[in-house]
Amino acid sequence: MSAEEVAAAIGYLASPAAASVTGTALAVDGGMQGLRLRPDGG
Question: Which Pfam families does the entry mention (predicted)?
Fold first, then answer.
């Protein structure tokens, strides 16, 4: 992740285009969150 990518995410969230975005965690991690192993809960 570059500083520019993080800044773009911050810029989006601070812009009027994100007016309807509430209660969301925006992962700026290059897709790594989707690769993490999760407990199977069973």
Answer: adh_short_C2
